[in-house]
Amino acid sequence: MAKVCEDNLCEEMSEIEKFALLDEVINDYDKKESNLIQILHITQAIFGFLPATVQSFIAEKMDLPISKIGGVVTFYTYFTTEPKGKYIISVCLGTACYVRGGKNIMVKLKELLGIDVGETTEDMKFTLQVVRCMGACSLAPAIRINEKVYKSVNPNKLQQILKQYK
Ligand code: FES
């Protein structure tokens, strides 16, 4: 079975190496349509996102129509066709966070980063997105940066939090 991106190895790989690895992955999964979602998960881990060129490659290798790949990619919100930043900032706008100031957190983050929801900063460092509850309602409002959750966030603390990722 192909080894995929241990220790962030994929970030160091050239495009040619990434496609060679993807080829190996598709073969490991016997080119079966029933394995398509799993293959797409691994593909996104390799490339960071699923651009049209990568989708075409998978379609050709698996002998599937490109529309089949595109349909799966657009159906699952986990998949993205745009490159994302190194740090994904998820702002919770679930009920508890919303009523306790989640909206102000979002406004401040947009201002600090100069981007809108779904966008990525030019230096490819931060992507801003919305989530609906991350299980920290008692300490709302909450945000998450990659895997780390910040609770009881105050808009005035945001700059300091972001500094840790600069
Ligand atoms: S609503 Fe935000 S953590 Fe639950």
Question: How is this fold's topology laid out?
Answer:
Blueprint: H1 9-12, H2 15-28, H3 36-47, H4 52-62, H5 66-75, E1 87-92, H6 95-113, E2 126-131, E3 143-145, E4 148-150, H7 158-163
Helix pairs in contact: 2-3, 2-4, 4-5
Explain what the structure shows.
With 166 residues, this protein is of the alpha+beta class. It folds into 2 domains: 6-75; 87-163, 3-Layer(aba) Sandwich (Glutaredoxin), CATH 3.40.30.10. The protein has 7 helices and 4 strands. It has helices spanning 9-12, 15-28, 36-47, 52-62, 66-75, 95-113, 158-163; strands at residues 87-92, 126-131, 143-145, 148-150. Strands 2-1-3-4 form a 4-stranded mixed sheet, covered by helices on one side. The mean pLDDT is 92. FE2/S2 (inorganic) cluster (FES) binds at residues 92, 94-97, 133-137, 140, 142. Residues 92, 94-97, 133-137, 140, 142 line the site of FE2/S2 (inorganic) cluster.
Summarize the structure.
The protein has 166 residues and is α+β, with helices and mostly antiparallel strands. The protein has 7 helices and 4 strands, in the order H-H-H-H-H-E-H-E-E-E-H. It folds into 2 domains: 6-75; 87-163, 3-Layer(aba) Sandwich (Glutaredoxin), CATH 3.40.30.10.
